[in-house]
Amino acid sequence: MRRILVLCLFISGLALAQTEDEKRIRSIFDTALTDGMAYDWLNHLSNQIGGRLSGSVQAEMAVDYTKAQLDELGLDKVYLQPVMVPKWVRGVPEFAYMETSPGVTTNMNICALGGSIATPAVGIKANVVEVKGIEDLATLGEEKLSGKIVFFNRPMDAELINTFEAYSGCVDQRAVGASEASKYGAVGVIVRSMNLRLDDYPHTGNMRYGDEPINERIPAAAISTNGAELLSTTLQLNPDTKFYFKQNCKQFDDVKSFNVIGQITGSTRPEEIMVVGGHLDSWDLGDGSHDDGAGCVQSMDVLRLLRKSGYTPQRTIRVVLFMNEENGLRGGTEYAKVAMEKKEKHVFALESDSGGFTPRGFSFDCSDADFEKITSWKPLFEPYMIHSFTKGGSGADIGPLKKDGIVLSGLRPDSQRYFDHHHAANDTFEHVNKRELELGAGAMASLVYLFDKYGME
Amino acid sequence: MRRILVLCLFISGLALAQTEDEKRIRSIFDTALTDGMAYDWLNHLSNQIGGRLSGSVQAEMAVDYTKAQLDELGLDKVYLQPVMVPKWVRGVPEFAYMETSPGVTTNMNICALGGSIATPAVGIKANVVEVKGIEDLATLGEEKLSGKIVFFNRPMDAELINTFEAYSGCVDQRAVGASEASKYGAVGVIVRSMNLRLDDYPHTGNMRYGDEPINERIPAAAISTNGAELLSTTLQLNPDTKFYFKQNCKQFDDVKSFNVIGQITGSTRPEEIMVVGGHLDSWDLGDGSHDDGAGCVQSMDVLRLLRKSGYTPQRTIRVVLFMNEENGLRGGTEYAKVAMEKKEKHVFALESDSGGFTPRGFSFDCSDADFEKITSWKPLFEPYMIHSFTKGGSGADIGPLKKDGIVLSGLRPDSQRYFDHHHAANDTFEHVNKRELELGAGAMASLVYLFDKYGME
Q1: B235 & B281 share domain
Q2: A387 touches chain B (CB under 8 A)
Q3: How confident is the model at residue A457 (pLDDT cuts 50, 70, 90)?
Q4: What's the confidence (pLDDT) of residue B15?
Q5: Is the pLDDT of residue B421 over 60?
Q6: What is this structure's pTM?
Q7: Which secondary structure element, helix H or strand E, spans residue A182, and what is its range?
Q8: Can the peptide bond before residue A353 be classed as cis, meaning omega within 30 degrees of 0?
Q9: Pick from A81, A409, B254, B292: CA 20 to 30 A from residue A257's CA?
Q10: Which domain holds residue A281?
Q11: Binding-face residues of A in 175-234 toward B, CB within 8 A
């Protein structure tokens, strides 16, 4: 009888806790949707500042602006963490055409890939060899590729429901296409944009030469998906079609920049640190609203939403706006390095870097036992149409924090439209829906709340 | 031992069936995403035809176009079902301003509500009384309302995650605001648009006078959410602010139109009919891409996707493109009436009329036992990020088919952006994402497949 009573008390205790969590999470979402700051902050970042490539004036304006906004929130601590970042500048104009017979040309939309060298000032004109991937290069060999422009044209796989998987399956063409093609004497590469939609926007993104000697490097540019289709068809009709492109980009010496950090110090376990963040830098073509202005302003609002809900965290919660995710990951690397030097104990890190779309769930990089515990919270998210808790990656910037005992997590918004905008001139504010952005902030704040309350012990 | 063997065979049979279903559904989604017709059809409906208000030339063009497209699919039967529909015409120009002092005016974006009468040719100018809902009218009474324009300004509730619930909580203002306000001597009504976002688009939609005598009816118009905020603030600063509006709309006699129907006749149970559909009419301000061009083209593609997957349905599958959902529901009513007269046995009906956004699930109007059986199929949808099976409504057009033994269902896409576009000039093709539309078609075809295969016996 006594045992039954204890059991009953235990069960009613559980039920009560559940109710408290439901109420807290309801209050967090209500505030996010009716009194959120994320959308206003994003409006400023996107429309008053714009694209924030590492080393640019805009990136420094974004550092100043977000620090000032965090200062206004009255957190326990707001500071800048210095970090040296690469400075690559696109230079304008970029220009390309295809030439089907001498003098008969069609202009094409291109953009230099991030990190690419310039073409010679007069541009490059050469015959084109279309390939479907890196592995085709060895088959064709130097005989077929020497002196040519290699056109990488393997599209993203439309059958994959998670578009990030389709991206992963293609992005090697952009990342290492130029360094691989130059081994066979190619003079330049053109890469089909990482975009599932057919449209006219070229999408930039990082590429790397590795330790290839500077005088052997060849320039690389992205072409829009419509452009890629047109070029491919034209090459079938006329294999002798030539491609011309000219770009004027340049790598400068590294410059000083900053991660922007704000902190609420934990009440009872201040030494245990939970990070929530996104990256403040973006590519230069659009205003970086989805990638990753959204993740920054959501992360900033997490601290504010928790405050507004009246919750006093046990652990220290830090918002970190990382600099230079796009072309160097220097901010994430530096943050983890300093944390290790200071022997800081990080227990949880959550990144939002998949766009400001309707949140569908979270992915977790953690032990099976921790994942099981976290999964027990899933019913608390279902009223907000957040159903998907999966094991998998988290975010590039928090990756360097990985070690035993830390839970890394990524917000997973609906991915269908992300690559319509990713790294392109149409990654702009008007493509972010206020409610979708706010639901993401609410979801993140709710997860941080539960982690702080229950921990992984 | 024998029993165990039988059990094992039974279980392995189930596992096999599961695998077959998984394969079939995978093939349906693959085809939807790589070889779907929905987006092309929608492009034509939206960009070559445009808004399709009942009784308009465009509505008839849409009947001809969709019938011709269904004919091309080589179905077993394609036909038009005649139905008389109301013909309301907006008339242009519509025009409004607020006047803070004589001659000092600010133009406002408005649109007549569907079914409203015109203003007098010179328009209406009157003082404005702002209310938060129908119930305020009785409190204010004739003394305060007589001779005034009533301004209904209760916003949609941003805290509701399902935006359709927020819509339901507000739409009485639009539907019966005018007929209720006229009882107290009001001369016109202005209704805040049913839109969660602050923007400049007025959203139309149906209103009704019921049996109110024609000479007592007063005109009604929608104002954009930004306009409503501005008017409300202005009234606080200056309660004597006047509002002027002029509209020229007119109700004509009913005209003949059609439901468009295509059918694959069942192989073994042809007498059991499954309907999949959307409504072909739309409001006139945009091109009706989300409401409900999307539902029509998805429904059309369901039959094609099932065919392409190599599946031979046991039951008869009928796509029905209903006419006149927006301002009369005559198509849905007629379809059900004819079905009853012909003693047709409908076992299932699925409607898509909530926009062409990423599908999140289905709602079902059916018995608990049927719902339990259907819910057992949910794991088959989870690879496609479709997680939400709920009991609830289905769709307006299939509602008249309701009776014991039929399962009614509605596709439930993500609802966050729907009311940004609903019934407004920005319900246009560029706001539909191809993949999101196609995923909806795949989800619908998969549900129809499972219902046909397993039934509810």
Answers
A1: no
A2: yes
A3: confident
A4: 53
A5: yes
A6: 0.95
A7: helix A172-182
A8: no
A9: A409
A10: 28-88+253-454
A11: 196-197
